[in-house]
Amino acid sequence: xxxxxxxxxxxxxxxxxxxxxxxxxxxxxxxxxxxxxxxxxxxxxxxxxxxxxxxxxxxxxxxxxxxxxxxxxxxxxxxxxxxxxxxxxxxxxxxxxxxxxxxxxxxxxxxxxxxxxxxxxxxxxxxxxxxxxxxxxxxxxxxxxxxxxxxxxxxxxxxxxxxxxxxxxxxxxxxxxxxxxxxxxxxxxxxxxxxxxxxxxxxxxxxxxxxxxxxxxxxxxxxxxxxxxxxxxxxxxxxxxxxxxxxxxxxxxxxxxxxxxxxxxxxxxxxxxxxxxxxxxxxxxxxxxx
Length: 290
Known about the structure:
Number of domains: 2
Oligomer: single chain
Helix content: 40-55%
Number of strands: 5
CATH class of the largest domain: Mainly Alpha
Low-confidence stretches: none
Radius of gyration: 23 Å
Largest sheet: 3 strands, antiparallel
Number of helices: 12
């Protein structure tokens, strides 16, 4: 779900029903604190409450700027500690097992693009064949599949300005994509007039838009089959960053491949230490005593 949709859901589902009837100057820090405490008591996660605070804080900051109120009542409230999910990136061996298990299926190039060059789930589902230049070995990101306010999936602009990028593809991934295109052409002939002319790289057997929930289900079944723990499709993007870094790829290059707006995001959020990296560090430490 996009940031906008998370904020919209927080506003419509929680904030407006509880606070929408109050006059602006009646929403005090105490009122907001009581609202957050109530949401936690109802079983809302700390991250959900933090999202509600982001929405309210932005709204009240704007109200202060417009001189509608003198002080932002969100200032000073006590927020819960956000519990960050522990992402375990795939090792090289695990990534290879996953791709081998998906060999010959649509998931093979889908997962390869996620774990090798770190494409986002929405970017993969919005990818068109015209975005891939096979002679040059490049892939361009121009679109992403997003959820609209009325809960419909549409192909729109990428997440951020830096998300729109061109990526050089390794030859094995190009080979996977070519094989996938050949299989898709066979499916198109089989479907006949039922085929939808969408030009999507990843689509149904009738050429229709693939939905993220269906891809996730197939991904979970594949993980179970190869004996890997359940993870989010987005975790493969973390794996891509970590694997590229373990290969000695410059951090700035990884940032450009992933389409991050800041180097800090690449270094501190998406890059993790693999056991092999720890082993390499120990071997270099041992050299101090040689």
